[in-house]
């Protein structure tokens, strides 16, 4: 098992380039099922989740070619024959569910083992299944599997009880070849959904409003192959912005889209961090007298839940009282106990964390409880006095490309070790 060792105290400097967004790439890879033509995805972050969904697609008959030199993936779904992917692969990652929409759309059937993923909450799939049912699919859940079948999907008006990203994406992919018009209301508005809509339209779909709260889809008879370059990773960018703040450093972040980062920039600016846009880059200066703030996670365009643990780590180093409220996932403060091992003063009260800033964090042996918690603990280690050893780092590898190398290039004393 790998661990990351961080010796804190170094100021960070220089430049870092942001990778493409895993949360954009995974649904796009799933969408390749919709066409029998080849699809090409450029500049793919070669993360564990990408390899897992590649293997899931292979298990149902797709041919996948990954060029690790150019970060290009070519997906050929022409030979897909099986509608039940390998159960062990599906259990590794919740995003496995993203193949449901494309499978029911193109083949009229799927059977899927209930998947796994980070242990941050229940994250039910009822909204996905209600959407398929509204499109006239028959759904059966039992014995650890979910199965759906339909002769012909029929467009419908679908109102989501909650703006679920996964449900929005799955229903979009199911509806693209349904008969007639589908309208999804109270849809999730994340930039990754807009990117999926762009990819599907390039395949020949007719989608208006992806990335807004109302999405209109006119079903088409077939989709063709296409080439796509995904959007950059706003959460990775936010993580590095917090890194500048927590280490009280100044450096440049390249390949960013400021439009996607508005809620993160707003909160960091409120805390006193100086942020200067520079074309497709941003200069972040955290070497300031920072102030406590209150943060509440919300669906996009609110403050992202995927940045909650990182901002919590930062506020643990800011004098005064801050309150962070988590509204998306009920079990996403597991990192607080690990941060307390490093000297953080955090008290959990229901869905809120009350944080009293301390003069300094101290290095300790901690465990990454989920993907973003692991990244937050690395940030805390960068700011801490002494050495921090972070285990269960495989969580972090699901969402960040060579995170230790990117920090090392900025001047951090960080290394990966294998036991």
Task: Describe the 3D structure.
This protein is an alpha+beta fold and 419 residues long. It has two domains: 2-19 and 233-418, Enolpyruvate transferase domain (UDP-n-acetylglucosamine1-carboxyvinyl-transferase, Chain, Alpha-beta prism), CATH 3.65.10; 22-228, UDP-n-acetylglucosamine1-carboxyvinyl-transferase, Chain. It contains 14 helices and 23 strands. The strands form six sheets. A four-stranded mixed sheet has the order 21-22-1-23, covered by helices on one side. Helix 6 (165-175) runs parallel beside helix 7 (191-202), helix 8 packs parallel to helix 10 and helix 11 packs parallel to helix 12 (371-383). The longest helix is centred in the middle third of the chain and has 13 residues, at 234-246. The N and C termini lie close together (6 Å). Residues 118-122 have low confidence and may be disordered. The modification 2-(S-cysteinyl)pyruvic acid O-phosphothioketal is found at residue 118. The active site is at residue 118.
Strand content: 15-25%
The count of helical stretches stands at 14
Please give the alpha-carbon distance between the first and last residues: 6 Å
CATH topology of the largest domain: UDP-n-acetylglucosamine1-carboxyvinyl-transferase, Chain
EC number: 2.5.1.7
Protein name: UDP-N-acetylglucosamine 1-carboxyvinyltransferase
Function: Cell wall formation. Adds enolpyruvyl to UDP-N-acetylglucosamine.
Pfam families: EPSP_synthase (PF00275)
